[in-house]
Amino acid sequence: MNTPYAIRTMSALALLLFFVVSSGCGLMRAKKDLAKLDDLIVISGKITSDLKTNKPICVTLYEKNSGKEKEQLTAYQLIYSTENFAFLRPPGGTYYLFAFEDANEDSTFQHTERVGWYGEPSPLKIVPGMRLEINLTLRPPEEARKEIPLLYASRTKPAVIQLKNRHLGSLVNLSDPRFDPKTGELGMWEPVNFFKKYGSGIFFLQPYDKNKIPVLFVHGVGGTPRSFEMLTKGLDQNRFQPWVAHYPSGLRLKLLAEGFRRNLNEMQTHYKFEKLIIVAHSMGGLLSRDTLNRLASEDNISLPLFVSISSPWQGHPGTTAGVKHSPVIIPCWYDMVPGSPYLKAMGQTPIPSKTNYYLLFGYRGKSALLTEGNTDGTLPLSSMLDLHMQQNAVRVIGFNETHTSILKNSTVSDTLNQILDTAIRNK
Question: What is the pTM of this model?
Answer without folding.
Answer: 0.86
